[in-house]
Every structure is written in C-alpha cells, then in structure tokens.
Amino acid sequence: MKAIVTSRGDGNQITLSEDELRKDIIEGSEHAAKKGKIDGLSQAEINQLVDIFRQPGRTVSVESGKEVVVSDDGAGLMASWGRPSAGHAIPISDHQSILMYERVYCGDTCGLGFPDYSYKPVKSAIGYARSHYKAISMLTTIPLVYGSQSNMAMYYHPSGPIESPFGHFSKGKFEKGFLLQEEAAQMMREDIFYVAEQLYEVGCEAINLDTVASAGDADFWGCLKVAEDIKSKLPDLPVEMGMSGEMIMGMHGKLTYGGEQLAGMYPHKQAHMAAKAGVDIFGVAVNSDTDRSTPYNLSRAVTFTKATAEHSSIPIHANSGMGVGGMPMTLLPPVGCSTRCAKALVEIGKADGL
Questions:
Q1: Fewer C-beta within 10 Å: the chain N or C terminus?
Q2: What is the CA radius of gyration of the chain?
Q3: Angle at the Cα of 62 (from 148 to 51), degrees rounded to 5?
Q4: What is the Cα–Cα distance from 108 to 101, expressed in whole angstroms?
C-alpha cells in the first residue's frame, strides 16, 4: 500500500499508511465532537477526507461548481511585504501589489491594513489610514476590506494606559482584575468604532475584526459590542469577524452577551453571538496541534466548521492560514496541505468561503 505524504502540525513532512491516516482522522473528529459537544463526522465524510489525502497530485481543488469566495487579512499585500511577514519583498508599493492581486491573481476581495496590524495604533495614524485606503479604493473594483486585530492586551501596561489585571488575580483580588479587563474592552471598543467611522467617511467598503478574543472573553465581548455600534450608526458598513481560536478563554469568566456566558464558547455558539451583534461574515478559527498530523488537525477543523455552518444564519469563512483550519504552524505551509485543507473545509465542512 502506497504511503501518504503529509505534514505534522509543525510543518515537518511525514508519511502515513492508510490505516494511520484513517485513525488520525477519526481521532481528530472525535476530539472536536467531545470538546464542542457537537456531532462528529459521518463514516461517509471520513471516507471522503481519507480520499482527499490519498489523491496523488501535489495539489488538489474543489469540484467544479463548489468554488467559494475568498477573503483575507493582507494576502493582497504579500508581494510587497518583507520576508519576516511571509511576503516576497518585491520593490513595489501597496497600491501595485493590490492591483496585481486583483487583476493578475483574480482575488475575490482584498484586505488592507496598517503595518502594525492592530486597531490601537491605527487610531494614532488615522490620517494615513484614510488617505491610504481612499487612494487604493479609487483604483480597485473588488471589495476592499480594512482589517486589524482587536488585540485588547495592547491596552495593558506597558504598551497601554490600563494596569494589567493579572497581578491582581495572583493576589486574589479578582473583582479588581475583572474591572480592569472591562475597562480595556470598553477602550478597545471605542477605538475600533472611531477607526471604522473615520474610514467610512472615505468610502470604506467593509471592516474586518481580526483575531478576535485573543485576550479572552472580554476581548470577544468588546468586539461584539463594537459590531453592534457599527450596525447601529453605520448600518451599510459590512463587518467580518475572524476569531483567534476555537474556544473563548475565560480570562474574565463572568461576561455574558444576550444572556449567555462567553467563556468556553466553541465556534458554533460564537457564530450565533456574532450574528446577534450584526456581524455579516464569521470566521471560524480552529487551532492546530503541532505534535499531531495534518489529517488529525484538519479533521478537527472540519468537524467544528461543519457544526458552525449548520447552526449559523450568516456566511462562514473558515480561517485557513498558519496554525488554524488544519494548517501547519509555519509561515509558508506546504501547498499539499493547504489545498487539501481548503478542499475539505468547503466540501465537507460546508464553509461559505475561506
């Protein structure tokens, strides 16, 4: 029996027998089902995932008619970005890179953002962000989405004005720690809305809240509230929300939205909260285990994505980059893994986009 060449979650190439491949896929689905209290993959879906990895070509693709729309958080800038950001370091401007992404690579949408990809520093450079966005949007036809990370942790000392709550937790002063997180979340909420409103004035076509909840449930709460703010005051500005992980960390633990506790939520419930807040596109993020194989990690990601797509009232764009969506945790994941992850997330996970 021919060995199947794939990668581990850290990017190192490995080979698996078909029995080992099937075992990893079953274990990955069962792990996701147990964690999220959702249905695992059916036998037919497991067989389909096995077949995707058994296909002999270095790359694979979805069947004709099953193509999906792709959104991104900076793929259109990759040509001009430097090597540390997995770019190609071609000496061209952002404008030229994005036009090439649109007109040569035929991107469906394009993401634009500030070099320090978080909303807090964008606020201090909003004049640059406005002129940069307007100049490029005048030249592009595809939707130009402005994105940044919520990154609530930047509001704590030493990079921000708010005292870190974690020193208080270590001393048993939990209420003080909770209040500091809520203060940071509120400040983050105001900054993100300020950036969205300023960009809206120059014709922003969509806003992307990227890597949401990286600082836990207070971060998620703040992003849900700013989505509400945007939909209330800028109702025709679409909002995309991409998560940082499959489970909301309970750094606060008591915060609720719509009467439901945010800490511990898995993707299918996260998407429900996002839809309630007015989010238009939700990005499922399922983390990869660097010690396990790509088939194991992808099976977990597909199981969570399928459950989310089945429960969601809004389009689901599965996050499919380094370390999420079954992909190895490397800047440039192997193309054999990335294309198989994309195919499985769409055909089995029922994602509306990537």
A1: N
A2: 20
A3: 115
A4: 9
Looking at residue 36, the DSSP 8-state letter turns out to be: H
Give the Cα separation of 23 and 25 in Å (integer). Answer: 5
**Cα of 217 vs its chain's centroid, Å:** 16
pLDDT in tens, 123-180: 999 999 999 999 999 999 999 999 999 999 999 999 999 999 999 999 999 999 999 9
Cβ distance 313 to 346 under 8 Å? no
φ, ψ for residue 343 (rounded to 5)?
-60, -45
Candidates 2.40.30, 3.20.20, 1.10.3470, 3.40.50; correct CATH number of 4-71+108-347?
3.20.20
Tell me the C-alpha distance between 190 and 225, whole Å. 10
Rounded to the nearest 10 degrees, how much is the dihedral formed by the CA atoms of 22, 24, 28, 30? 60
The CA-based dihedral angle spanning residues 116, 120, 125, 128, taken in that order and rounded to the nearest 10 degrees: 60
**pTM for the structure as a whole:** 0.96
pLDDT in tens, 51-109: 999 999 999 999 999 999 999 988 899 888 887 777 888 999 999 999 999 999 999 99
Amino acid at 214: S
79's tokens? 């040509």
Tokens coding 212: 């949401």
Pairing between strand 4-7 and 13-16? antiparallel
**Calpha distance 44→40 (Å, rounded):** 11
CB-CB contact of 152 with 185 (8 Å): yes
What is the Cα–Cα distance from 34 to 303, expressed in whole angstroms? 11
